[in-house]
Amino acid sequence: MTDFLKKITRIQLTLGGCFLILMICVTCANILFRQFGMPLRGTFEVMGFMGALIFALAFGYSLEKKEHIYVSILFDLFPPKVQRAARRINALLGMVFFSLLSFQLVKNALNLKAVEEVSETLRIPYYPVILVLAFGTAYIVLLIVCELFNPSGDKS
Fold it and tell me: What's the predicted TM-score (pTM) here?
C-alpha cells in the first residue's frame, strides 16, 4: 500500500474515532438528561448515522491491517500456488462486490437527494451519509486492487 493510501486510511480512521467519541458523548448526555425527564430528541437517528459513518470510515483500516474476517483453515491445507490463486479469486470477487455496492449506494444517495428524503425527528438528509458509505466501499476496492498487484502483500 502506498504512503498516500496510508494517509487516507489514517484520516478516515481519525474521523471514525471522532464520530465514536461523539457517539459516546451523545449517549452519556442522553442518559444524563433522561434522569431529569428531558431526553435528547433524535438520539436514535444520530446513533444510526454515526454508526454508519464509523463503519464506512474504519473498514479500510481493518483491510490494511488484515484484521477482517478471513477463514484460513481450508486454504492452509492447499499448496502455496493454490493458496495464491484462491486469494486472487477472492480479491476479484471482493472487487466486483464492493464496486457494485458502491455504485448502488451512489445511485441510492442521488435518488434520496432528488426526493429530499430526511430523517423523521431531526430532519437530517440521508444522502451525505450514504455518499460516505459509497466512498468507503469504493476505497475498499482501491485497497483490494493495490493488494492484488502488490507481490509483498500476497499474504492475507
Answer: 0.84
